[in-house]
Design a protein that fits this description.
Strand content of chain B: 25-35%
CATH superfamily of the largest domain in chain B: P-loop containing nucleotide triphosphate hydrolases
CATH architecture of the largest domain in chain B: 3-Layer(aba) Sandwich
Structural class of chain B: alpha/beta
Structural class of chain A: alpha/beta
Radius of gyration of chain A: 27 Å
CATH topology of the largest domain in chain B: Rossmann fold
Distance between the termini of chain A: 30 Å
Oligomer: heterodimer
Helix content of chain A: 55-70%
Radius of gyration of chain B: 23 Å
Number of domains of chain A: 2
Order of helices and strands of chain B: EEEHEEEHHHEHEHEEHEHEEHEHH
CATH class of the largest domain in chain B: Alpha Beta
Helix content of chain B: 25-40%
Shape of chain B: elongated
Distance between the termini of chain B: 48 Å
Largest interface: A-B, 28 and 28 residues
Largest sheet of chain A: 4 strands, mixed
Number of helices of chain B: 11
Number of strands of chain B: 14
Number of helices of chain A: 14
Strand order of the largest sheet of chain B: 6-7-8-3-9-10
Number of strands of chain A: 4
Number of domains of chain B: 2
Amino acid sequence: MKSLSRLLAITKKEIRQMRRDRLTFGMIVGIPVIQMLLFGYAINTDVRNLRTAIVDQANTHLSRQFVVELRETQVVNIVERVDTPAQLEELIRVGVISVGVVIPADFERRVIDPDRPAVHLLVDGSDPTISGVANQLRIMPVAFDTGRIERRGNNVEVRPYYNPERRTPVNVIPGLMGIILTLTMMLFTAVAIVRERERGNLELLINTPVSSAELMIGKVIPYIVIGMIQLALILVVGDVLFQVPMRGSIVDLYLAAGAFIAANLSFGLVISTVAKTQFQAMQMTFFVLMPSILLSGFVFPFDGMPVFARYLGEVLPVTHFIRLTRGIMLRDAALMELYPELVALGAFTLVAMTLAALRFTKRLD
Amino acid sequence: MNCEYAIEARGLSKHFGDLKAVSELDLKVPRGQIYGFLGPNGSGKSTTIRMLCGLLTPTEGSASVLGTEIPGSARKLKPKIGYMTQKFSLFGDMTVFENLQFIGEIYSFPKAERAPRIEELLAKYDLIEQRRQLAGTMSGGQKQRLALACAVLHRPELLLLDEPTSAVDPQSRRDFWANLFRLAEGGTTIMVSTHYMDEAERCHRLAILDRGVKVADGTPQELQAGTGMHTVEVTADDPYHAQAALDHGAHIASVTQLGMRLRVLLPDDVADPVGTVVQLLETHGVRADVRQTTASLEDVFVAVTMSPEERAV
């Protein structure tokens, strides 16, 4: 009973201090909302409106119709018409356009000749996403709706499941959930304890009858609640602004988030036992955050990474959480079908907690 | 519990790497007394106090604090001691009342008695007007009173105070000591570290620490009587020249200037200390009034922290 009341005293104090710390309080809401707006709107791998110039050396009815259809894809935004392919090269080089389209004079004949390409695309390969888009244009059929021309060579049809419209936010937001929770949970916990050490409060606290476990759990409880609130916020913003679907069970998602938050908080505790100043705690958090963004499958497909990077990625809790959220939210997978990810999160929490408990002693030496 | 000493340390040492912060310290602190710990910064006062409340593990030696053995689990000890850190360690972003409330909760002070106890402390330590003020915005003296109120809230048997008055004005210091005497009269044992001589003089007993070593202990009177030095006071119109005349003179152990006066220490095997001083001054043509006096605690401090070479001049 005494133990529980001491634990609650710590929790109560923590909430009270948090409410007075406007910056932290603002970050609880601010970080998720701003990150979502940034990632949701600005980051768009679904590229549209590439600045394009055209050389139409054929200038026939068919070539003009091709240009119209090209424009209708919205992938390109035709900003200029020039006379020679050399001029296109120049425009790409100086960065005015990203794509150049050359329609040769014998366009009509080429269209029906399967051996010769009908159109040349000059693409700025210095940007990887643009060359990706070029492939999208390559498979564009030429004017088959005129009925005069047979379908040409492109035979593989891609059917994107779960995100048929290929909208980026649908892929980004379940992952972003993991990144936001990693940042806030780890940072808040680490800083919450290091701040007390920095201000001298810890010397007072460890001289009271409060035990290490009571102190740690008591401090962490408010942040679990905050994590859950942030999750709700992300779900609402994701639904309202980006129409991210929630196909699976929300209970499953919250359970997965619970396991993930526990993993992050325990790692935050580990950081707090190592860092001497709040600044160090922040540096260490970002040291973990960068690989969390890059190696977790959030930005780059996990399977495409080198083996070593994949092993590193497997160690990060966020990798497993992103698999869980994408599975539950987009593919309607049940939590138990994804149990290996839960096991991984549990193992991480156990190891981190043990480490933190071993390192945190009620002593100063 | 029945032993007469609240603290009994035996050969307590603490080393940080090559630095011997505290060396083989023996201490006996009687119950219900104010025990002073006098020494300059870095003499090992804080380290000793931290060892006694279980915050630091001694490198060697042991201590018995209120019957609990150190080193060992200090868990049982925590509810019985109150500790006031050198740096203000309460929560600056909580009010005076909230801080006291938190301390009450963390020490599991009975709920029914908690509110009256807090009111009692607010009144006793003159904090009624500040009850809703954030602790971080208070003056040094107010912070110190709050820290003391928090340290005694759970009615500890032993109070460990680490330089409690280093950040407050003289009036606050006097009030603070009045509070300490009240607590001692109520039976609380108090161990207080300080580098102020006037505070040391108020203690029932004190130990003088120098570079981690206890160089003297006893009551202030015992210490003043047993310096092994003669104290001579020189009053001169030109104390600067008087000091120059005496410095490095034969049999002069130390010269300390206090305004127009000089406190001169000579080994007690010098037969005529006043004559020795007068002679030295006359040789240098300095006119002064010279008389022998009793040692003050500051003289004791200078005498006991002297190196053996300085002592044997």
